[in-house]
Structure formats: C-alpha cells, structure tokens
Design a protein that fits this description.
By secondary structure, the chain is of the alpha/beta class. The chain has one domain: Vaccinia Virus protein VP39 (Rossmann fold, 3-Layer(aba) Sandwich). The chain contains 8 helices and 7 strands; from the N terminus they run H-H-H-E-H-E-H-E-H-E-H-E-H-E-E. Helix 2 runs antiparallel to helix 5, helix 3 packs parallel to helix 4 and helix 6 packs parallel to helix 7. The longest helix has 16 residues. It is globular. About 40% of the residues are buried. The structure holds S-adenosyl-L-homocysteine, 3,4-dihydroxybenzoic acid and magnesium ion. Magnesium ion binds next to loops.
Length: about 230
C-alpha cells in the first residue's frame, strides 16, 4: 500500500482524495460555490451531493442524452444545477421539494446559474407532485435522481415508475448508509426505507439494477443505478 499522509484515519484520506479529484479534474465554479454558500447562509442542512458526485450526475445525464430529468429532493438546488447543465436546449429538470424555505433558496441559486428556463420546481410532498405529473400525462423522464426522505424511497419508486420509459436511468442517493444497509434488524427508518427500495428494485423484472459503494467528503455511502427495461 503506497504511503499517504493520513494512514490512520480513513475519513481524512477519503476527504483528501475527494479534494484532490475535484482540484485535478473539475474546474472551480463560482456559481456552484455560491449555491453552497447561500444554502449554508440560509441554514439549510449541509447534505448536498459533493462536487465530485454532482459532476458524476452531470456526466451520467449527458451519457444518457437526457432531455427530461426528474429530481426528488432539491434542497438548495446544488444537484439540480449539475443536472440542468447536462440538458440540451429545450430540455427540462422537474425537481420536487417539500420545504418552501429550501425551494426559495434553490430557485435563487438556479436563477443565478442562468437555468431558470430549464428547471421547474414543484413545491409540496413528492408523492402529491408525482400523482399530479401522472394525472397531467407528462412526457416520460429519461433520468430520475431520487434524493428525498429515505423512508419514502419505496413509495416514490412506485409513484415515478409510470413516468419512466424503457431505457430510463434511475439513480438513488444514500443507499449504503455507512454499511448499515446490511442490517435487516435495524430500527433506523432510513435503513429500512432504502432496504425496501432496493428489495423492490431487485425483485422487479422490468428493472436492471446495481449499487455502488462510495467514500469521499460525505463519508461512506453509495448510489443505486437502474435501467428500466420495459414497462
Ligand atoms: N438533491 C439535493 C439534496 C437533497 S436533501 C442536493 O444534492 O443538492 C433532501 C431534500 O428532500 C430536502 O430538501 C428535503 O426538504 C426534501 N424532502 C424531504 N421529504 C420530502 C418530500 N416528502 N417531498 C419532497 N421533498 C422532500
Ligand atoms: C441526509 C440526506 C441526504 O440526501 C444525504 O445525501 C446525506 C444526508 C440526511 O438526511 O441526513
Ligand atoms: Mg443525498
């Protein structure tokens, strides 16, 4: 194992390497930094995706040629900006957010990024917004990023699958939870929520899935990735 400066503290190593990746591969970006700064100033929780994860979302959306993206859980719009930047002209991110205060910060951050025309934020409980979208018969989404309350994940999956098409890419954040995801006896409703979500993914023959464990500035967690095969 090569020498590195923090041999005894894995979390420091993960953060240092995350920073190194960011500095080496990702141009610094004042609009994204301002979105984080203003989220912090407004006392929003510091739970946005990291810069390296946000860039992953953007690259995946581009790889998917996504024109319509559904995000569940906007917070201050940090991940939303990454996703919206991947859109072709005329594309749209529909992002769902429960908290008016979060939505207000998100809208300001999205406006500063010059992306107001590419993002439509729906305020309210995501299950209600998803029912609305179904009732409106909107065009199917090419990509879904699920990042709201974890106990809701199984319900959101059921509610947004009708808004997908064969080939839709589904990503869900925070499904590893420091490894606690393997504890079937866990009393943590977040763990039980992601476990039921992953169980539904794995038992649905219409969906092809995996999950990737991640370490970095946000600690030890991971994403699930799924492709809708047919509906
Ligand atoms: N995707 C964001 C972080 C989202 S944090 C980013 O990476 O930048 C989770 C968000 O989900 C919070 O803003 C929270 O208010 C929102 N949320 C929680 N429960 C919700 C619900 N029932 N409907 C919609 N949004 C919800
Ligand atoms: C929490 C939520 C998230 O979406 C995340 O990425 C990290 C933490 C939380 O609710 O604590
Ligand atoms: Mg998250």
């Amino acid at each position: 194992m090569p020498n590195h400066p923090f041999p005894d503290n894995p979390k420091e190593v993960w953060s240092a390497v995350d920073q190194y990746i960011q500095q080496t591969l990702i141009p610094s970006d004042s609009v994204l930094q301002a979105a984080l700064d203003d989220s912090h100033a407004a006392d929003l929780p510091a739970i946005s995706v990291s810069a390296t994860q946000g860039k992953l979302l953007q690259l995946l959306a581009q790889t998917q040629s996504a024109r319509r993206i559904l995000e569940i859980g906007a917070l201050g719009g940090y991940s939303t900006i990454h996703l919206a930047r991947a859109l072709p002209t005329g594309g749209q991110v529909v992002t769902l957010e429960l908290e008016p205060k979060h939505a207000k910060v998100a809208m300001a951050n999205i406006a500063r990024a010059g992306l107001s025309g590419a993002v439509s934020l729906r305020l309210g409980p995501a299950l209600e917004s998803l029912a609305q979208l179904r009732a409106e018969g909107v065009e199917p989404f090419d990509m879904v990023f699920l990042d709201a309350d974890k106990p809701g994940y199984p319900h959101y999956l059921t509610a947004f699958l009708p808004l997908c098409r064969p080939g839709t890419l589904i990503l869900a954040d925070n499904v590893i939870r420091d490894g606690d995801v393997v504890d079937g006896e866990s009393g943590d409703p977040n763990v039980q929520g992601v476990r039921e979500f992953l169980r539904l993914l794995g038992s649905d023959p219409r969906i092809s899935s995996t999950a990737v464990q991640t370490v970095g500035s946000k600690g030890y967690d991971g994403f699930s990735l799924s492709r809708v095969l047919n509906l």
